[in-house]
Amino acid sequence: MNTDPLDIERGRDLLADARSVIILTGAGISAESGIPTFRGEEGLWRNFRAEELATPEAFARDPRLVWEWYDLRRQKVLECAPNAAHDRIAEWLTRNEGVVLATQNVDGLHERAWLDVGQVDGGRLLEIHGTLFRVRCTACGRESPHREPVDSSSPDTLPHCEACGGLLRPAVVWFGEALDPAIIGGAFEAAEGADVCVVVGTSAVVQPAASLATVTRETGGRIIEINPESTPLTPICDVSLRGTAVACVPALLSDI
Ligand code: OAD
Q1: Mutational test site, ligand 1, from 206, 211, 233, max ligand atoms within 8 Å of CB
Q2: Which of 94, 151, 200, 205 is the 20 to 30 Å CA partner of 103?
């Protein structure tokens, strides 16, 4: 992989002239933190069956199994730290109010990186597929933060709602479920108004997230993509940086 310095400069010029920017990230940005992607060689969906673990039907059938898997993912993520790409984006967010960050990741690393440098603005961090570190009650719908280990040895030891006693589930979006309209609506609004959409580490095959960049393009904005591989978005990108997130994000965003 050899990222042309001229491409980095072209990307930096686009960003220097931009007043509003949306950054869309996927699992690839966390790969260098040690978190597996979904569709890569060691990808989660290559080693686990999504329909047995990440659907409402799977949870209704066997909540212990689903919780066991999510708890394992949580514990693994807690052993990992934000990398230089998360850090650089967080620092950029604190300095530029016109930047919105929409992530498909549920690993919470963007939030951790942002907390390290300042107070997180929830309106500018849009976790469109939810997060591993919140739960939602299956009975009353109440959501709350939740980071404690989950004991999935029996149905009774699974986490239950403090308000109504209902079974709690991870507040992530599962296959077949709708996205939170306020969150995805906010992301599309940002994409429509953006001068530039920076897409980092996503295969761009899962909708509607993948359309965010297309919307920016259709409304007159530009697209910068960072990914070691080409994706379905590559043909419509103005700048393609063919490298890893840690190699390219700091170089793209430093001092602008
Ligand atoms: P994928 O696993 O589909 O794609 C990861 C992308 O990251 C690929 O395009 C890789 O080439 C790229 N990549 C790998 N290492 C990288 C690195 N070091 N730096 C930059 N890029 C790198 O993951 P997503 O696109 O995030 O949804 O997947 C989208 C959604 O599919 C996920 O949010 C998840 C999954 O099903 C839900 O769980 C709802």
Answers
A1: 206
A2: 151
